[in-house]
User: Which sequence fits this backbone?
């Protein structure tokens, strides 16, 4: 036999020997392990799953699919506003009736204004334009209807005169008041439609409204008439919050005419709006007189801002009025108002006395008139 043949024979013999030893080894292991005892296999499988879940060895001990870890959702961070971006400034005035009594033969308001859309607010337009939002109580329907109620006073504003608001920086109005229905339901709907046409935001006790400031913070507005309870507008307030409003303003046309102190009902409604429904500020009109400012549970209540520009009154027994600017200080992500800062501007409803020229003018700083307004508001500059 040649040397190559000897090498081939030795290889075959070695291979056969290896096979025999492997068979004996397997037989020996089978004899030591009870097939019903799977603890060793389980232990091995667990060790492999824990230490080498992606190795080839896993395939030899388990047919379960490799578990895939579910990634943890990363929350979207809320933007952090710079300190100067956390301030939203809103300006408030009292009752505005930009017309005269519909049945009067003396059209003094129309003849005084004489089509000048800047006339009435010429002394305060720059103040209105300096803020994020100016909100007034508009106490007259805006309609061309002729059928009306038989009340002591009936007001009807020409739709074209809404330019008085847009020209002078007045963006929003409350129309929940006792003259809204002077021309019945048709006149009310005309009012809403005409305000929409001029891009003026309106709210009442049936519909809320929102306004988005330049920093993206949303202001919500709701109106209450003299017969409206706080609970009546709870759904509107919730809807405003659902729409993203971080500030809620309630305009309340309530109280007793000709009085300088709020009634118990005014207080009850204002407190409920804050305590029960989370309103940030309550702005009152209707008494035609100034009433005190109250700070209640960290929130401001203006019980009555009196009249401001009131075309329905040609002689003023009490001309005192006021403009209030409120800075709403928001938290870092703009989701909640955490503080307030007020600026109070005593005004007269007319720039010439006696009488009424329908052009409100500021009282002179520290004059007798100035201090009288501050006293009626129960307010001092040192309060802020």
Assistant:
């Amino acid at each position: 036999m040649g040397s190559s043949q000897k090498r081939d024979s030795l290889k075959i013999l070695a291979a056969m020997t290896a096979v025999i030893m492997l068979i004996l080894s397997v037989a020996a292991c089978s004899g030591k392990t009870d097939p019903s005892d799977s603890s060793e296999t389980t232990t091995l499988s667990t060790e492999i799953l824990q230490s080498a879940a992606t190795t080839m060895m896993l395939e030899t001990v388990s047919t379960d699919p490799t578990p895939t870890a579910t990634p943890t959702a990363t929350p979207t961070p809320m933007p952090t506003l710079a300190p100067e971006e956390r301030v939203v400034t809103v300006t408030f005035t009292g009752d505005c009736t930009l017309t005269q009594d519909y049945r009067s033969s003396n059209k003094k308001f129309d003849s005084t204004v004489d089509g000048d859309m800047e006339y009435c607010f010429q002394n305060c337009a720059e103040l209105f334009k300096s803020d994020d939002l100016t909100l007034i109580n508009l106490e007259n329907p805006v309609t061309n209807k002729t059928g009306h109620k038989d009340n002591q006073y009936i007001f009807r504003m020409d739709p074209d005169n809404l330019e008085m608001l847009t020209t002078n920086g007045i963006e929003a109005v409350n129309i929940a008041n006792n003259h809204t229905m002077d021309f019945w339901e048709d006149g009310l709907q005309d009012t809403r439609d005409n305000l929409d046409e001029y891009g003026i935001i309106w709210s009442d006790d049936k519909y809320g409204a929102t306004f988005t400031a330049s920093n993206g913070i949303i202001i919500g507005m709701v109106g209450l008439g003299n017969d409206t309870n706080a609970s009546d507008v709870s759904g509107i307030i919730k809807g405003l919050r659902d729409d993203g409003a971080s500030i809620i303003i309630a305009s309340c046309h309530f109280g007793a005419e000709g009085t300088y102190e709020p009634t118990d009902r005014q207080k009850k409604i204002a407190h409920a709006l804050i305590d029960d429904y989370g309103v940030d500020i309550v702005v009152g009109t209707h008494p035609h007189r100034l009433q005190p400012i109250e700070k209640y549970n960290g929130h401001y209540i203006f019980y009555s801002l009196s009249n401001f520009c009131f075309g329905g009154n040609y002689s003023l027994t009490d001309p005192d009025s006021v403009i209030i600017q409120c800075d709403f200080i928001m938290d870092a992500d703009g989701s909640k108002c955490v503080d307030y800062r007020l600026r109070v501007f005593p005004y007269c409803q007319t720039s010439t006395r006696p009488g009424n020229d329908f052009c409100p003018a500021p009282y002179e700083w520290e004059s007798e008139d100035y201090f009288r307004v501050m006293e009626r508001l129960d307010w001092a500059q040192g309060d802020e």
Q: What stands out?
A: Residues 134 and 235 are 24 Å apart (CA to CA).
